[in-house]
Specification:
Elements: E1 2-5, H1 10-16, E2 26-30, E3 34-39, E4 42-47, E5 51-56, E6 66-70, E7 73-77, E8 83-97, E9 100-110, H2 114-127
Length: 128
């Protein structure tokens, strides 16, 4: 299982405390079955079988940081660097506010090691 830290730039670390996105609660884990996103209070599981593709992406500064809706989907970002975009085969439900969910076909992440994460997910997709 691979574990990848969500990149959190110093300027946004204090505001991220509102959602409890500390260093210990800002990561993504990948195993053969799922991608598990933990970003403060957010806790989402994306089946590997539901991922169509994974690639580097972009996140504009004006969309902000935290758990965001934008860029065509949902995002867990603490930086405009290290951006990875997961394109999903179908829209999946994500929790957007307490128990309120919405369906998205894209999940964007800001990661400390985006290339390693992309390689890991692609290897899992090749085996699926």
């Amino acid at each position: 299982m691979g574990r990848y830290a969500i990149r959190r730039d110093p300027i946004i670390r204090v505001p991220l405390l509102i959602i409890a996105a500390t260093q210990e609660r800002s990561y993504v884990e990948v195993d053969d079955r799922e991608v598990h996103v933990v970003f403060g209070l957010a806790n989402e599981r994306i089946p590997v079988a539901a991922i169509r593709s994974v690639a580097p992406g972009e996140w504009p500064w004006y969309l902000g940081g935290g758990v965001r809706i934008g860029g065509g989907g949902i995002a867990y970002v603490g930086s405009t660097r290290g951006i990875v975009r997961l394109e999903l085969a179908e829209k999946l439900p994500f929790r957007v506010f307490f128990k309120l969910t919405a369906r998205f076909g894209v999940c964007t992440l800001s990661l400390e090691e985006p290339e390693a994460f992309i390689d890991d997910v692609r290897a899992k997709l090749a085996r699926a």
